[in-house]
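Inputs:
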Amino acid sequence: MTLSETGESRVRGYLYVLNQSLRASGSAQLASDALREVESHIRDRVAESTGMPNEREVLEAILQRLGSPATVARAYSLEMILDEAAIGGRIVAVFRSLFHAATTGVAGFLTAMLLFLGYSSAAGFLSIALLKPIFPNNVGLWLDEGVSLGGRFPAPPDVTPLGGYWIIPICLFVGLLILIVTHRFARRWIARLRERIRTRRAALVR
Amino acid sequence: MPPEHWQEQLRRGMLELAVLLAIAPGRRYGLEILRHLEFADLVLAEGTIYPLLARLERDGLLAAEWVEGQGPRPRKYYQLTPIGRARMKKMCEEFRVVAGGINQMIERVLGSRR
């Protein structure tokens, strides 16, 4: 079967949406390769649909069997994100994987929250270490309203934070320690999640 | 768990092995692989087979290359790498052990009722 102009437009429309969805997931190289492969698939399916007079029905059936562009793009990006996080360990990929994991169930949500808490604590300690030399009177250990560690902008009148610059190496050490432990745990957890998804969600079965 | 859901889980679990088996005889492109999966009654939302192939390629189980001139349009052909073949054999062995055990249990339960 050879497609009419309307049929060609429908195919181009599908590929356009798929392209946009794949590019949104981050990899231009992946998008280009995937798009080429899916287009080849559609055109092969169209070519083998001989003896079927209704082009629209044929095309819709082919695209329906293929899955929506969002479904296909999601399957690509999920595989990519988890791989990147588990193997490469890039912090952005780990965060994106955690956001995904948080939607997979109660256990996933709680573990992801725990890990976000770990990353936030690490960021807090490192920020104190970084800001203390710049704002010595605003950052430190505060004892006026209970015990708190952090920064106050502007600093309350007549109160100065306890602790001198010695707080910097301590916060640096604690922050880095929490960051390393959290990141290692996150990568291991994502690797396990990846293995589980490989067996359960490698593809959608109708 | 509803029976349909269990069936779906079972097929999903088998998919990676089925894909490796479909490619094992020689170089194949996506649609050819899908036809083999249809033959084995592993009917898929077809578009999701490509991310799986891409992942198997990234994991080094498959090697892929675009070939032009062997059909009306360029096609991406996949073939097993030595690592992929070893993995497939290992998966087949494990599958046989599990399937054999389950078959024996089925025979014991259903066979005695005949």
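The first helix of chain A runs from residue 5 to 24. Flag for discussion at group meeting.
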